[in-house]
Write a structure and sequence with these properties.
The complex is a heterodimer of chains A (486) and B (593).
Chain A: H1 2-19, E1 27-28, E2 35-36, E3 43-45, E4 53-55, E5 62-68, E6 73-79, E7 82-83, H2 87-96, E8 100-110, E9 113-116, E10 120-125, E11 132-138, E12 149-154, E13 160-165, E14 178-180, E15 183-191, E16 197-202, E17 205-210, E18 220-225, E19 231-244, E20 251-264, E21 269-272, E22 281-288, E23 294-301, E24 315-322, E25 327-336, H3 338-341, E26 344-350, E27 356-362, E28 375-380, E29 386-387, E30 398-403, E31 409-414, E32 423-428, E33 439-440, H4 448-451, E34 455-462, H5 470-479, E35 483-484
Chain B: H1 2-29, H2 31-39, H3 47-54, H4 59-69, H5 75-100, H6 112-120, H7 129-144, H8 150-168, H9 172-190, H10 193-213, H11 221-226, H12 239-257, H13 267-288, H14 291-304, H15 308-317, H16 323-335, H17 339-342, H18 365-375, H19 378-390, H20 399-411, H21 415-425, H22 432-439, H23 445-450, H24 454-460, E1 467-468, H25 473-483, H26 488-500, H27 504-510, H28 524-537, H29 550-565, H30 569-577, H31 581-587
Helix pairs in contact in B: 1-2, 1-5, 2-5, 2-14, 3-4, 4-7, 5-6, 5-7, 5-12, 6-12, 6-13, 7-8, 7-9, 8-9, 8-10, 9-10, 14-16, 15-16, 16-18, 18-19, 19-20, 20-21, 20-24, 21-22, 25-26, 26-27, 29-30, 30-31
Classes of the chains: A mainly beta (486), B mainly alpha (593).
Chain lengths: 486, 593
């Protein structure tokens, strides 16, 4: 019903738009186009929401856009410098021009005169993006948190809903929300503080887990699901935040202790690894391979902290895991060596097709979000070839990524706009493993990224929506007693 | 006729006296509270901001309340706004009360709701939205009684029960209860069941609304019943707030029930009411006001406005004792080049009164952030400011913090971030001009370098990257001094820091750095330390390698004499040498600080 109303509104807007003075006597623009977000020359999925934008050239009175495909043209004119596409017209246009290049011409009216910028291309690919994206929305603070929400956004429209809200959870800190198998029916997040626990959503049922045993000094932090959904692998970290003194650098976060552990959700059991339990090595950011037979993680020899923080370099390692016997392997392979490659690896993530392993590289340490030099890199797991993803990275922090279920899209958090407020970007990975120029998550109001002073943390893609909302999480967190693990 | 005129004059006189008293209270006694309110919000002339406010129950009252609070930028204007609204509230209560029973003799009682709001406003976390909500609720109630058509009343009643809940929050129940009561009375009078049904329907609807709203709003149910925006801590509901919300109804009860009926036409009755009201008002306001907080807020405001001499003047009249106030005073002394000379003339409470450690709240980090900012520790100042703003309990942003964050980001060359804050500030009424001026500095390093404050701070800030350690603040300050020898403030803070810690060894280690600071004379506190050190190893004051003033020499002799020979030396020394470092060193209990 609401979709029909939306469609009617779209048609109405289109008619109105058409009635709005269409550009006439258009002259070539003498200035360079300045649009936010930068959607010039990007590859977009056929199911993405309209790429609304702001034309930031001075004194713009009206904006008109021609999107020309093989079969038809979409022309819309808007007053002011804020340009929005009607949702239904946009969707139809994308579906009709899948796997095509379309030419986009932006025109502006200034002092009653229309000017036309050089056109640019959008490539519309049939490789869809997973429909749902979850992220934690939080002020990029230091230690204090106040308003934290985990939200789920439909990337095909602008529909966004709150799926967990600390305002309903006695202001407890919430960690980010992660999916298993890119499915809304398998996900978890940690709820910290008294009465907290790990909220596990599996097949429509919410459980509250205490992912720590009496033998474990620390609880579970960073984690990932096994493809079977039965296991989760986690690091246990003692995390210390500290402050840089020089301008442009903000926060340094490091571990003074860290290990790995596998949680068996079916038997409420924690399976510790003797291989990764060395006190001389920090292990963190574990993730399962696509087939679940390997655990990739980051490891660094212990150094004197915080004095030698800049000598803290994590390599990318892997250890086997046997699903049937629920046991760790006993041989550690180094996949990416920090010493030979230079830098420090964080957040490995395997593509669901098993072909690639992408991760973040910083100069040192283990907290890339505040490292401006943080960039994503990718290893081809079949050839071992390393791709530095230059088309994707920026001069500022690019990290916290995830893969779409079809392994054709990488979603990641980037602070490229200002160095402080993270936004979600999507980059297409083609059949040859090449990444394309990324584009930011479209917003209904393109001014949102300017006015919204919150960061989008840990974007995670899923094909389906999660079966809970903030209210049900509030109820479950109160009702449920944490299940203990042995 | 004359009696009516006299009655009207009498009523207006009440209002005038009340208004003048309220105005004097807020503009003279409680002005810093108004500035305090103003700094913890960021009212934007922006549709997104408006929509954000309207997205929660009570949002319109919050929006109007915040709109009005922005005028607290000028305390006299803020006091005038509060006075005006309290008078409007009283008049509305009178208008509503008259409907039930026109009893001029109970007129003084109609001041009760305004008085309770006044008492509530003595709490620094009570927000203007509650007053706005009360006024709107009573205003809508007044209109209701002029509708005679039943169907229209039904429509009006249902519509405003829902709309008022959404726009003004729980104060809507004043409208619901009064109009329901009206309907019940009407029903009884006319023996009309439909009026009773309307009244009951509105009451039922009012209890159902929060339950329904909970499906869409991320707030605990209790908040949806008792309100979100009336108090800065949404999860807290002080008992005074309950009194404020119920007082209009209690006042109406007086009119409906008419207690002491046989006597209420007498002058004595009215006079008694006035006397009781005055006594109640003064006693409750007296017990509710907090002049210690007002003093702290005043110090903080003066620091924010960089009125250093004024701070010192106030401290000279009444020396501050709380770490918060002492932090402000020490910064003022430092900024006027008097820290080394005079700091021990005032009460000192250790490093907590100099550079306090970070506390997770929204007020205490602000003076500390000011000190860090002026010292050149830009990142630390930024952190304290950012965290203070994050800790504002009702999730509001802060004009003051936005300004400081703009500055720290401009100084650090983080222009894109500064631009975001400037964009927001340029949508405000009182900070727009400042924001547009600051905008001229974006992406223009040369212009920033020539700014009298930002240029200086850019010169003195750290250029070497290391991790900040609050446990080694003296070393952090030392690095600032080493980086720029012209940073006299950092030098004086470094010495003050170790003196506050009674670490004479470190003082002697750092003191020689002052040779390059172009001091005309050794500041008094430093002289006192040096003399003390000398006397520990030498029998006479002759041969000291420093230029010590004869006054200090004389005083140290006297101090030593009393200290050595008097059994109750502490008391004597406190009176005579309480303003010296020697007294601080020997008698101030560090643990008690």
């Amino acid at each position: 019903m609401s979709y029909k109303i939306l469609a009617l509104l779209d048609i109405l807007l289109l008619v109105l738009g058409a009635c709005t003075a269409a550009p006439t006597h258009v002259l070539p623009a003498t200035e360079v186009i300045s649009i936010y977000p930068d959607y010039i020359g990007v590859t977009i999925p056929q199911n993405i929401a309209p790429l609304n934008f702001l034309l930031r050239n001075e004194q713009v009175e009206m904006v008109s856009v021609d999107v020309v495909g093989v079969n038809d043209t979409m022309q819309i004119t808007r007053k002011g410098n804020k340009f929005t596409f009607p949702l239904l017209a946009w969707k139809n246009f994308l579906i009709n021009h899948t796997n095509e290049d379309v030419r986009v011409t932006v025109m502006m009216r200034k002092a009653m005169q229309w000017y036309k910028f050089d056109p640019f291309i959008w490539h519309i690919t049939s490789d869809s993006l997973d429909s749902y994206l979850s992220y934690r929305l939080i002020e990029p603070g230091y230690e204090v948190w106040n308003e934290i929400q985990i939200r789920e956004r439909c990337v095909e429209t602008f529909k966004e809903r709150v799926i967990a809200d600390n305002n309903l959870l006695e202001n407890k800190c919430m960690n980010c929300h992660i999916y298993g198998n890119n499915s809304g029916n398998l996900s978890l997040f940690h709820l910290r503080g008294e009465g907290g626990g790990t909220m596990l959503n599996k097949d429509g049922k919410i459980r509250k887990l205490h992912l720590q045993t009496s033998e474990m000094r620390l609880g579970a932090v960073y984690g990932s699901f096994h493809p079977s959904g039965r296991y989760g692998v986690f690091s246990t970290n003692f995390i210390i935040p500290t402050l840089h003194t020089i301008g442009g650098k903000r926060l340094e976060v490091y571990d003074t202790e860290s290990d790995l552990v596998v949680a068996d959700f079916n038997n409420n059991r924690m399976i510790q690894s003797p291989v990764s339990a060395s006190p001389n090595v920090f292990e963190t950011f574990p993730t399962f391979s696509a087939d679940g037979k390997w655990i990739y993680y980051c490891a660094a020899p212990v150094v004197n902290l915080p004095d030698s923080i800049k000598k803290m370099h994590y390599s990318l390692c892997r250890v086997s895991f046997d699903e049937t016997s629920a046991s760790w392997g006993n041989k550690i392979d180094t996949v990416w060596n920090a010493k030979t490659n230079g830098g420090s690896a964080c957040h490995p993530k395997a593509s669901p097709d098993g072909l690639f392993l992408s991760f973040t590289v910083t100069d040192y340490g283990t907290f890339p979000i505040w490292h401006q030099e943080a960039d994503l890199q990718m290893i081809n797991l079949q050839t071992g070839e390393l791709n530095k993803l230059e088309e994707l990275n920026s001069k500022r922090s690019d990290t916290y990524h995830c893969w779409s279920s079809n392994s054709r899209w990488i979603a990641f958090a980037s602070k490229r706009i200002d160095g402080q407020y993270g936004r979600v970007y999507f980059s297409y990975v083609d059949a040859q493993g090449r990444v394309h120029k990324p584009f930011v998550l479209p917003q209904k109001n393109p001014e949102n990224d300017d006015l919204n002073l919150k960061s989008y943390n840990i974007p995670e893609l899923a094909t389906t929506s999660v079966p809970f909302d903030a209210i049900s999480i509030e109820k479950k967190s109160q009702e449920l007693v944490s299940e203990q693990f042995k | 006729m004359n009696r009516l005129l006299a009655q009207k004059i009498g009523m207006n006189s009440f209002s005038l006296v009340f208004g003048v008293t309220v105005y004097i209270f807020f503009s003279v006694l409680y002005s810093a509270h108004l500035h305090y309110h103003e700094q913890f919000q960021l009212f934007l002339f922006d549709s997104m901001y408006f929509k954000e406010r309207l997205a929660v129950p009570g949002g319109l009252a919050d929006y109007i309340g915040e709109f009005l609070t922005q005028f607290f930028y000028n305390s006299w204007l803020g006091a005038a706004i509060i006075t005006l609204l309290l008078c409007i509230l009283q008049q509305l209560v009178w208008q509503v009360a008259k409907y039930f029973k026109k009893a001029e003799n109970f007129y003084p009682i109609t001041f009760l709701p305004s008085i309770t709001v006044w008492v509530f406003f003595c709490d620094e976390n009570a927000l203007m939205s509650i007053l706005v909500a009360l006024i709107v609720s009573l205003l809508i109630t007044c209109f209701f009684r002029s509708i005679y058509n039943y169907k229209l009343r039904v429509l009006y009643g249902i519509f405003f029960t829902i709309a008022l809940y959404w726009f003004i929050g729980p104060a809507f129940f004043i409208f619901v209860i009064i109009t329901s009561l009206q309907e019940f009375l009407l029903g009884r009078k006319r023996k009309d069941l439909s009026s009773v049904m309307l009244g009951s329907g509105m009451l039922l609807l009012s209890t159902l609304i929060p339950l329904v709203v909970q499906r869409w709003i991320s707030y605990p149910l209790v908040n949806l019943f008792v309100g979100i925006g009336y108090y800065r801590f949404p999860a807290v509901m002080p008992y005074v707030e309950i009194v404020v919300l119920t007082m209009p109804l209690i006042t109406l009860l007086f009119f409906i029930c008419q207690p002491l009926h046989p006597f209420n036409n007498s002058r004595v009755f009215i006079t008694s009411q006035v006397v009781i009201l005055v006594l109640v008002t003064f006693s409750t306001v007296w017990f509710s006001m907090n002049l210690d907080k007002e003093e702290a807020m005043h110090y903080d405001y003066l620091v924010r406005k960089k009125k250093w001499d004024r701070i010192i003047q106030i401290a000279e009249k009444k020396p501050p004792t709380s770490p918060f106030n002492v932090t402000c005073l020490n910064l003022a002394l430092g900024k006027t080049g008097q820290l080394g000379e005079r700091m021990f003339e005032f009460y000192q409470n250790g490093i907590e009164g100099l550079l306090p450690v970070f506390q997770r709240d929204f007020t205490s980090p602000l003076p500390a952030s000011e000190a860090y900012y002026h010292l050149g520790m830009i990142n630390t100042a930024q952190r304290f400011t950012f965290e203070a703003m994050e800790a504002i309990p009702n999730f509001r942003k802060s004009t003051r913090c936005y300004m400081r964050l703009t500055e720290t980001n401009i100084i650090n060359g983080e222009y894109e971030v500064a631009r975001k804050y400037i964009n927001a500030l340029s949508k405000t009424l009182f900070y727009r001009r400042w924001a547009l001026k600051a905008k001229e500095y974006l992406y223009n390093d040369k212009k920033v370098d020539h700014h009298p404050e930002w240029g200086w701070l850019r010169k003195i800030r750290y250029e070497e990257d290391f991790l900040f350690s609050a446990k080694e603040t003296d070393i952090m300050l030392g690095k600032l001094v080493q980086h720029n020898k012209a940073n006299k403030l950092a030098f004086e803070y470094m010495l003050a820091y170790v003196l506050e810690q009674k670490d004479i060894e470190k003082f002697l280690k750092y003191y020689p750095l002052g040779r390059e600071m172009n001091y005309q004379a050794i500041p008094k506190s430093y002289q006192e330390v040096l003399v003390y050190v000398w006397t520990q190893k030498n029998g006479s004051l002759d041969g000291m390698p420093w230029t010590i003033s004869p006054v200090v020499k004389e005083r140290v002799r006297e101090f030593a004499h009393i200290y050595m020979n008097q059994s109750n030396s502490e008391e004597i020394l406190r009176n005579r040498f309480g303003n010296s470092y020697w007294y601080y060193l020997l008698f101030k209990n560090m643990n008690a600080q």
